[in-house]
Amino acid sequence: MEHLEAYAAKLMEQAKLPGAFIGFAKDGETVFAKGLGFGDVESQTEITLDTVFGIGSITKSFTCVAIMLLQEAGKLSVTDPVSDYLPEFRTADEALTRRITIGNLMSHTAGLPSLPSLYYAMRRSMEIDPAVKEMPSSIDLTAHEPIDTYGELMDFIASLDVKLLGEPGTEFSYSNDGYALLGAIIERVSGQSYESYVKEHLLDPAGMTNTVFLIEDLENQPNIATLYTSKKGENGKEVFAAPIWWDAPAMRAAGFLKSTGRDMLAYAEIFRTGGLVGETRILTKESVEQMIGNYAGLEPGRHYGYGFMVTPDFRGGTLVEHGGAIKGVAAQMCIVPEQGITCVVLTNLDGAPSTELLGATLNTAQALPVEEPIMSYAESPVSADSLQEYVGQFGSGEGEKLEITADEAGLSLTVLGTTFALRPVGTDSFVFQTPTGLEKWIRFNRDGEGKVNRVAFHFRQLLKLTEEA
C-alpha cells in the first residue's frame, strides 16, 4: 500500500489538498482505510473512517435507489411519464414534455439543457458565505429570487420556456434539475419528505448512522471535515477554509448528502452484492441490475445507468462509478462487483484530484501500478481542413463556458483561463490531458444540416454561442 500512499501524498501536495479519506474493500472486508492530511488544518484534526465529508452528486444514486424502492412497492414505474406525478412540470414543447419518463430523469436523457436553477436554489446559503466573494462565477445570484420549493423550481423552469435538446431518451446531458424533480416525485408518491424517505428506507436499514443531508442532524459527531476552497493568489493557487455548507432544499436529491468512509463502503455493498448490506436486503437483485443498465452512451465503452456511470468491459469486470463536487467537496466511489471490489475517496477541497485518487485506489485493489490509466483512447486522425468546423465558443445555463480554437498544431480547448491541446480519438470526438495526466473526453454534436451546434463537455451539452471563425 506504500505506493498508493506515496502517490496520494504527491497528488495532495500538488493540489494543496488539506485532507482525504481513501479506502477499499474486497468481498465486504476492508483492506485499506486511510486518512491523509487533516480534516481541519488549523486544529490538525486526523481523518478516520468516521470523518464526515460531503459526497456531492454521489447523492444521485441514493435518489435512484429511492425510486427503485418505490417501484418495488408498486407505487410507480420508471417508465411512467413524469407528468403523471408532476402535472405542473412544463417546457416549451408540451408534447415532448409529456413523453419524458421517470427513467429519462434518472439517466439524464430527458433532454433538459443545463439551467441556472441550482445557484438560485443555493442562494440563501451562498449569500451568507464570505467565501463566495473569492470564487469566480458567471451566475448573478441576484438575478432571481431564491428557489426554496419544488413548486418554485417547476415555476422557474416553466418561465424559461426551455427548449429540449431532443426526443426524450435520445440526448444525454447531465441535469441537476432532473434529479430535483425526482425528489419531488419521491415526496408525492411516498407521502413523506424526500429526505425522510431516504433515511427511513435506505440510510437506517443500511446502518449509515453518520450520513445526513444537514450537518445539524449529526448527534455527538465531533469529526466533521472543514470545507476548503481556493482562489488565485499572487503566488498561484491559495487554499483557504470555507466552512459554511451550501444547501438547496429544493434540490437536495441532486447532491447534498454528507457521509463517511465507513458508511460509503457499506453503501457500495448494495451494488457489489446485488442489493444487500450485510444480511439486510435494501434492493432486489433485479433493481440493482436495472440501475446499471445502458440508457445513454457517455463515450466509447461507457454508459450512464440510473445514478451511475458504467463501463461494462473493464479489466474482466464491470466498473460502476460516480463522483460528486460542490464547494469544499470532491468525492468518488466505484464498484467492480465481479471482483468483489469497492472503493471510496472523500476530500474536503473542491477541484481536488479525487478521480486520480480513485484510479490509484482501484489500481491498487486490482494489484496494478498506481498510475495505470483507467481509460485509454486510441488516436483517430482528423483532416486539417475540417478543424474550423469545431471552432467557436460554447456555454451552458450553469455558467460553464469554453472556447475551441484551431491553428497549424490542431485544436485547442480553453476553459477557466487554461488552454489544453485536443487529440482526435473518433468522429467528432477528442480528448485533452489535465496536469495530473488524466485524459478527458469531449464530443461535438451536429444539427440536421451537419453543422456543429453543441459540445459534450463535463457530461453536459454546451450550446454553441458563436459562428465559426
UniProtKB/TrEMBL annotation:
One of its GO terms (molecular function) is hydrolase activity. Residues 5-355 form the Beta-lactamase-related domain. It comes from the Bacteria. The keyword Transferase does not apply. Keywords: Hydrolase. Pfam families: Beta-lactamase, DUF3471. Residues 380-458 form the Peptidase S12 Pab87-related C-terminal domain. InterPro entries: AmpC-like (IPR050491), Beta-lactam-related (IPR001466), Beta-lactam/transpept-like (IPR012338), Peptidase_S12_Pab87-rel_C (IPR021860). This is Serine hydrolase.
